[in-house]
Amino acid sequence: MNAIQPDRFKLTKLTDTQVVQRVLEGEKELFEILLRRYNQRIFRVIRSYINSEDDVQDVMQEAYVKAYLKLYQFNNKASFSTWLIRIAINEALQQIRRKKRIAVNYGKTESLENVFQLPDTNPMNPEKQTIKTENRAFIEMAVDKLPEKYRVIFMLHHVEGLSNSEIVDCLKISDSNVKVRLHRAKKLLKEELFKITDDASIFEFGNQKCDAMVEKVMLQIQKL
Fold first, then answer.
1. On the chain, which terminus has fewer CB atoms closer than 10 Å, C or N?
2. pLDDT digit string (tens) for 29-85?
3. What is the CATH T-level fold of the domain 8-111+125-222, as seen in this structure?
4. Half-sphere exposure of residue 36, counting CA atoms within 13 Å on the CB side?
C-alpha cells in the first residue's frame, strides 16, 4: 500500500496520539501507521488465546476494525497499545465463545514450525541456523502448553516486554496476581527453558503477513 508513501518517514515519527487525532480528523490512511506499529504485538496477544492461524488473523482484522470504529473513545488514560490490546483480547475471547471452546485444543493444531514464519536473522552457518530454528520451535511448543492464563502473561511480559502495570491495565487483574502468574509460568517452563526466551523473534508475524493484514484492514476501513 502506498497511501502514506510521500511523507512516510515523517509520518511514522508521529506519536500514537497524534496519529489517532489525525485519523479522527479525516485522514483515514494514517491508520496504517498504527497497524504496522502494532501488528506484531496484536498477533502475539491473540495467538496466546487461539492456536489456529486463520482464526488469529480473522480476529486481528475484527479487532482493528472495531478499534477504528471506536477510535473516538480513546482518551489517553492508558497508552494506545494497551487500549488496542484490550480490544484484541475481547475479540479473541468472543471468538472462543462463538466456537464454544473453553480451552485451546493442543492436540489438533498444526505443527508450530509450519504455523510461524521464522525470519532469517544474522548470517550464520547452516548448522547454527538449524539449531536456532529448532530452539525457537521448541520454545513455541513449550509456551503453547502453558494454561491460557499463564501463557498470556508470559507472552505480554517476556516476549512483548510489557511492564507489570501495563499488564494490569490490559487484563484488569491485580499486580499481585500478575506476579503470581509470572512466577508460575516460569516454573512450568523450567529455568533452563526460560533463559533462552529473550529472543523476541518467536511468534513472528512476518513482513508478508503484516502487509497482507494492513491491506485487508485498510480496504475495509475505506468502505466505512
1. C
2. 999 999 999 999 999 999 999 988 889 999 999 999 999 999 999 988 889 999 999
3. Rna Polymerase Sigma Factor; Chain: A (1.10.1740)
4. 17
